[in-house]
Amino acid sequence: MSFIVSDEVQHKEGGQAMIVTGVASGMVECRWYDGFSVRREAFREEELSCLSSTSRLAG
Q: Taking all residues of the chain, what is their mean pLDDT, rounded to a whole number?
């Protein structure tokens, strides 16, 4: 699955909902708030599932 910036995703093994902030070379950069600070980490596309996505325009 390909993700775009602003998609809401979650790691397939569980965890908090995250927002996609960047995508490059099969890696997806995500940010989320853990209750204390904003965290940032990159994951492989296949590790994530999409919770919701922004409306995408048909091309």
A: 90
